[in-house]
Each structure stands twice: as C-alpha cells, then as structure tokens.
Design a protein that fits this description.
about 15% helix, 1 helix, Eukaryotic RPB6 RNA polymerase subunit
Length: about 80
C-alpha cells in the first residue's frame, strides 16, 4: 500500500508561517534594532516551512490566534 503524505501546514494546530521578503526582513530588524542572529531560531528542516523555499538567514513570520489575545505575531530566523 502506498504511503500518503500529509501537508502539515494545513493542520489546524499549526500556525501560519510566511517567509518575509528582504525588505520586510530589514524593516523588522530595523524596528527592533537587532540582527537576524538575534531572532529566535527555526530549523530549515522544520515541517511547517515545507514549500516556503527558505534558506539560512531568511526571516519567518508566524501568526498564531489566541482566544484571549487575538492574533499574535512572532518572528524567527532560519538556521541549518
């Protein structure tokens, strides 16, 4: 029997992950006055990044929804 592959990013418990453009990345880094290395890390092999065409040094925007706080945005730097 063939094994069926599931796309993890479609699961309801996985928050939305978006790769930032270079200009968006620079804007966020400038706003917080930090470097990409100072962002919390996310591994390039993380299943939530599948299909985003990321490379080390990219920035990822993660949008989570909370019943009490509403929409919360986190940023992560991609590492190997």
């Amino acid at each position: 029997m063939a094994e069926k592959k599931i796309k993890i990013s479609n699961h309801e418990l996985i928050p939305k992950h978006t790769k930032l453009s270079d200009s968006e990345k620079q804007k966020i880094l400038g706003f917080y006055n930090i470097t990409i290395n100072e962002l919390p890390s996310i591994f390039i092999t993380d299943p939530a990044l599948e299909g985003l065409d990321v490379k080390p040094g990219d920035a990822i925007k993660i949008e989570r929804t909370s019943p009490t706080a509403g929409k919360i945005v986190f940023y992560r730097g991609v590492v190997e």
